[in-house]
Amino acid sequence: xxxxxxxxxxxxxxxxxxxxxxxxxxxxxxxxxxxxxxxxxxxxxxxxxxxxxxxxxxxxxxxxxxxxxxxxxxxxxxxxxxxxxxxxxxxxxxxxxxxxxxxxxxxxxxxxxxxxxxxxxxxxxxxxxxxxxxxxxxxxxxxxxxxxxxxxxxxxxxxxxxxxxxxxxxxxxxxxxxxxxxxxxxxxxxxxxxxxxxxxxxxxxxxxxxxxxxxxxxxxxxxxxxx
Length: 227
Hints:
Layout: E1 14-15, H1 17-38, E2 50-59, H2 75-85, E3 93-98, E4 101-109, H3 114-127, H4 129-133, E5 137-145, H5 158-169, E6 178-185, H6 189-192, H7 196-205, H8 207-212, E7 216-222
Parallel strand pairs: 1-3, 5-6
Antiparallel strand pairs: 2-4, 2-5, 3-4, 6-7
């Protein structure tokens, strides 16, 4: 998934929340249309139909947000986004959501690569002397969308999918300096056929039962880094 140009090549464009408000409904709708075309085809036989929403949060050891400097400089956020770019392709999107949150959108994603994207980024964050010197924790929560073979989640409610990613940022609070947790559809999602309008609230309320039934699955990234 890493860009062939590497960290020293041309940088991906910097975007912000305003861009995501326009871009994400379109990207989600595109993923829905693709999923409907391919129907109940098993995930391992699908082309790259998915979109990965990787929410990155920078925290102090007590869990509070990393503050922006008095002059508005976003030194640590810019550093985190630069690390993200090293593990993404040129067609993917990286930007700031404001404050201590940042978002990477991996387009045309093979769902089996989602773990690799998160793992490579967290490994880079774990090696970062900039983040280590400031004792900053890096959390990643991600959603690989669509979550169902009946992808009817309203695209304009994309913020709810980010809220889901935020929830998974908190799933491994005691994991040390870097941690990641993600959700994607499970092996039996097609058989159960739960529409996303019903499924997404269930993921918030009782995700463990959905995992047990094979409707969704979790991915956990936990790396041991030097302190």
